[in-house]
Amino acid sequence: MGPGDGPDANQTWILNNDGENNLVPILRRSDGQVVGGFGRSGRQAGDFHWVHALAVDSKGNVYTGEVDNGNRVQRFKPNAAPK
Questions:
Q1: Of 9 and 22, which is predicted with more confidence?
Q2: Which of 44, 51, 53, 77 could be joined to 65 by an S-S link, Cβ 3.0–4.6 Å?
Q3: CA–CA–CA angle 71, 46, 11 (5° rounding)
Q4: What is the 3-state secondary structure (H, E, C) of 10-26?
Q5: pTM above 0.85, yes or no
């Protein structure tokens, strides 16, 4: 699989971890418009405590890492692309 073969081959979306607000907004690359996102401040699954790192694998799974005393990695499986 090459760089252009993944789930976002056209590089339509940008995911940006926002550690101050503990969320991951999803932006449309063409105009920078926020079209979705996930997360909130907290300690439960799907919540974040100082989200700091973000990675996406070839299947579109999103991995986040937290610092401070969050100290965990979470995986999010995509179910649909933002509109």
A1: 22
A2: 53
A3: 100
A4: CCCEEECCECCCCEEEE
A5: no
